[in-house]
Amino acid sequence: MLVDAHCHLTGSYLAAEQVEATLVRARAHGVCGFIAVGTDLEDSRAVLALAAQTPGVQASLGVHPHEAKSWTPEVGAELALLLADPAVRFVGETGLDWHYDLSPRLEQEHAFRAQIRLAKALGKPLMIHTRSAPQATLQILEEEGAAAVRGIIHCFSEDQAFARRALDLGFFLSFSGIATFKKAEAVRQVAAWAPADRILVETDAPFLAPVPYRGKPNEPGFVRFTAEAVAELRGIPPQKLAELTTRNLEALCGWAPSS
Ligand SMILES: [Zn+2]
Ligand SMILES: [Zn+2]
Predict the structure, then answer these.
(1) Amino acid 192: pLDDT
(2) How many whole angstroms from 155 Cα to the centroid of ligand 1?
(3) Above pLDDT 70, what percent of the chain?
(4) In 1-124, at which residue ranges do the beta strands (DSSP E only) sit?
(5) Ligand nearest to the CA of 202
(6) Contact 140, 147 (CB under 8 A)
């Protein structure tokens, strides 16, 4: 039994009428748990509604760094109300994206720090997105005391030095389809090396489909291929990798799918 630790199942990412069939296909691949992630206030509302009515789906709500320009005190207050729901297991995705720079960097930092504080106030772990800003991301997590709540470095795409500092903060590393790409040597090396009790797998669907579906739309069932690749890198059976990643998610957020 596998859990997809980060996927997008709402709004512009997946049409509502396709959700059920997508999750049926995922279960056929042995994927029974899904952390559905919201990227702005409106999407977070949709994710929470989906989690409330869909067995096996739990929520991660936040404002993505791309959407940080939408952050206001009112958005923060509204988000805080949604985050209090027990089906919400993570705060985010939040973090820094200096690759696309779709929001000004200062606004990304402001929304990031505010969401870390919300996570600490609620006692819920963080879902971190970081791209082309490794040092700033780690520095903010350290300065804000994110170790108190821990969280996931989602779609891990950094190196071992970054991984060490994230692990020191108590964070978990979630591997995506990138771990199936032969040329992604640094990520594959970390996937082989990271402590067994700190690794997770995800799709980030609809993005970043793993081999053999690379370049096609991704869906949660395909986390199976990433899990198989990570298991091979670590020299363990896929079944074992499935067990430990499911157990790790439960250790971090207190939830595991029931079947
Ligand atoms: Zn992300
Ligand atoms: Zn995402």
Answers:
(1) 98
(2) 7
(3) 100
(4) 2-7, 31-37, 57-61, 88-97
(5) 2
(6) no
Determine if the pTM surpasses 0.90.
Answer: yes
Q: What is the pLDDT of residue 258?
A: 86
Closest ligand (CA of 137): 1
Contact 61, 79 (CB under 8 A): yes
- Give residue 81's pLDDT: 98
Mean pLDDT taken over the chain: 97
90-125 pLDDT tens trace: 999 999 999 999 999 999 999 999 999 999 999 999
| Closest C-alpha among 181, 126, 136 to residue 157 | 181
For helices 238-253 and 223-234, angle between their N-to-C axes, nearest 10 degrees: 110
Rounded distance from Cα 93 to ligand 1 centre (Å): 6
Q: How far is the CA of 226 from the centre of ligand 1 (A)?
A: 17
CA of 7 to the centre of ligand 2 (A): 6
Determine the distance separating the centroid of ligand 2 and the alpha carbon of 137, expressed in angstroms: 16
Nearest to 190 by CA among 169, 163, 220, 227: 163
